[in-house]
User: Fold these one by one.
Assistant:
Number 1:
Amino acid sequence: MPSPITVLIVDDSRIFRNALALSLSEEKDIKVLGSVRNGRKALEFLEKTPVDIITLDLDMPEMDGLSTLKAVRSLKAPAPGVLVISGHAGSAEDLRRESLAAGAFAYIPKPVAVAGELPLERLKNAVAPRIRSYVKRGIPSPLPPECLPCPDASRSKKNQTEVILIGVSTGGPKALHVLLPKLCRNASLPVLVVQHMPPDFTLSLAESLNAQCSHRVVEAEDGMEVLPETVYIAPGGRHMLVRKSGSKIKIVLNDGPAEKGCRPSVDILFRSAAAVWEHRVLALVLTGMGRDGTQGAASLKRAGATIFVQDEKSSVVWGMPGSVVAAGLSDAIFPIETMARAVHQYLTSCSGA
């Protein structure tokens, strides 16, 4: 049996340290070796006890998180990987960019306590897969500069989400049949789906989903208006984009060159949606081979959008979602069976309901 992944928790909040340790305690392949309140204590701990991963807050006394991160990354190899989990005030995208630039392998905003209690399951679902991904893959190759998250003005997302985007490939039809019927029962927003499939197969997929969903599910056509309670499946072999036309948003199909060998391309849909809806997007990256969707996710994050990904265990291939996680672009990770519920909870919390 392989040795467990060892973790040091660094945070000035004892409540959060205890909550994170408890959330990871049931993970057989992850072992928390220590918990300290600031960067200085962390460096002292590491002198005596090496670990594989450090989870790090940014706002701490004596030695703040970014100073600690830089000190840790300068340690002799093998330096531990650093996962930043912070509730530091300011723009999340600024903090994400600074953390990744300083050497963190991912950044997660701290979950908000509900009725005085931290959501342990959500914390575990956000942290454990990122730890495993980093240890399994090593430090991910950096994205090209144009794909790195950029700073953005802090803005409230209350009442803002206007569309749900889905990117999926290998294992997608089964995942969509699990997700979409539940999603349609709980959300009236339009849903745009890119499923990697050859021509002629996406129409039958749309018809099959239409029979199971409370919303209308169609294979997208050029010039269609994007409307609530409708799911649009990109036709196989054609890119699907969105464009503003006066007060309406319409679908544009084209036969442009494949991106990363894919047509339709998740990246192309995500980039066009970022230009149209900006931060008012919730994107879901599901099971699939390759990296399609990662550059588009970066464009969405620059615009302030929110991105959920499917977890490794329930994915047939954890290529597309794993790539988004490794790039530090995902906001949360969920099994496909609970993704619709998570979306509903997110939309409800953002609407102030």
Number 2:
Amino acid sequence: MTLTQLRHLVAIVDCGLNISLAAERVHATQPGLSKHLRHLEEELGFPMFNRRGRNLESLTHVGGRVLESARMILAEVDSIRSVVATMHGVTRTMLRIATTHTQARFALPATIGALSQRFPNLSVHLQPTADALLLDVLDSDGADIAIVSTSGGPPKTNGLALPAYRWHRVALVPREHAFAQLTRPLTLAELAGVPLISYDSSLKADSSLRQIFETAGLHPQIAMTAGDADLIKTYVHAGMGVGILAEMALQPSDAEHLRALPADHLFPTCTTWIVLRRESPLREQALEFVAQFAPHLDRGQVGQALTSGVNFDGQWPATPYWHQPGSASAQVVPFPARGSQR
């Protein structure tokens, strides 16, 4: 058994059981990563994953136990390296953030930049992760912070969930599309009559997008899904269908070929949450992250909630709506500035 095998096992889980993404993350080839996994399973005498054909479906019970130990071992290795680095005077601390592509690409850059200025020796590791696996990664000590979005109440987690901002979905079409010529709001029936392109989570039975259509007695035509908002925009531009995506993903340059139509009258408002792992040693860095990303939250109250283990659900200030100065969403959808109240 080698550290490389353990790192590859952890990478596979953190990448949503996607071998290709895991190989890219650890800078290995897909065949090489699969070979290491096979050798690990042969040495231990147990499969780490339940499989369907060549696809990994889920961790086995033994795989889950091995994963827990692997994370602990790798954390200890990192600790040893930190000790050695301290002796050389080049200590760096790593903050691990599990998040979706949309948050990483469009919402987090300013916060990460400010955090790096505040803590020059801090290394931030962004872990693009599928929606459904974000909390699992956090709860299994695979991250210090998770950025999660819901269309209902707080996410169910052992960590501390803090409301960061609220946002809407928009319908995205090519500028020449018939919907782009409408002078009235889109209807749900119109969207149900065209191919749709949205996030991977829309394939889930409990997807809020899918449930809205089904409650109205309609069946959405999901023509394509992606975890990457830029891919959704690319295939909308190619004429594959109408995109349903988060307003944060809109950029001024999109207006050259695409038009975003308000859909907040059709779909529920979503909330993005910061979820902190309570036992993370990076308390000050986590609190600074919250202060930058959700400045409406009181730092002292957040620190108290972390220490006491009590969630202040319902006691946080009103959650502001998303708005970035100069963003395309500000130009297309008339939302109040971030930090204002509706």
Number 3:
Amino acid sequence: MDLTERQKKVLYCIVKEYISSKTPVSSKRVLETATIERSGATIRNDMNRLMKLGYIYQPHTSAGRVPTDKGLRFYVNELLKIREEIRQRGTQVETVARFPIGDMEKVLTGAAKLLSSSTKGFVVIEKPSPLNLRIKRIVITPVSKTFSIANVVTTLGLSSSIPLSHAEIDDLTEIERVLNKMMSGITLSEFKAKLKTVLSKVSELTDFISENTTKGFIDIVERLSFESYEDYIHVGLANLVANERVREDKIHHLIAYVSSDTFFKELFELKDGIYIGKEHGLKFLEDFSIIIDRFKLEERPLGRVATIFDKYGDYDSVIESFEYMLNRLSEYFTVVSRNVE
């Protein structure tokens, strides 16, 4: 059922006050802070209706009210509307950050630490994948006749070392030369899309490499193309553990889960957006909300950032910090890509 405008104001006030004070909100407090010209009895009736509809609950008799996940969702939706209105009016101040051209790992780690500190949350950054970056060169270093290490260097200076098992090869020089000729200037994802064509025409490659090395070439190409390249930076686990609503008997389960590959997989299966409490469906994290989105190189997505924070946290501040960091990372990678030859 739809809420009246007054009930919406009452609900917004309850959520905002609870986020600020972390104590149940009374009808008296609503009257003191909200611009509502009504009696205490009217406000209490509105609060009872909000309870029946599942937006708030009363921890115990005579206590004030606490917002549920449904109430928090209403609040966040209203907050996003307000932020969008401000953005459309053009009153938002955009601050330009100057990033040095440096170690990408340090930049991402620094961004994660700053975001974790400002949101009091657990931050996970998905590193840019070589699949989405243009290849500068590939260097293959032989370890034995059947095992090598391929180092893929991209336009952002990001390199990825990939172990390669292959058929016996005496000399990798020809294969390295052909790979660089075929892959320089394109992305690994583009090369992956062309893999079937490459393999179907492998017989033509004998103009460049000997028949004895053809099998080794196929092994290496397949390994490069199907590498997953998943890697993450994460900071702020202590912020989750320190949350007063996380029971002691649950802490070790939470730590084990967010340290597992399953967690990263399930986290980044979520679509971009804000998830409150149980909405995200991640185990042991129902006391937390998640905001997740992607940073870009110009308009091309490079990676994603997720912040997990107290579901009764300051959403306005968290969203502000999160959007700022996304913009700065996008700006950084765009600047770096234009400066790296």
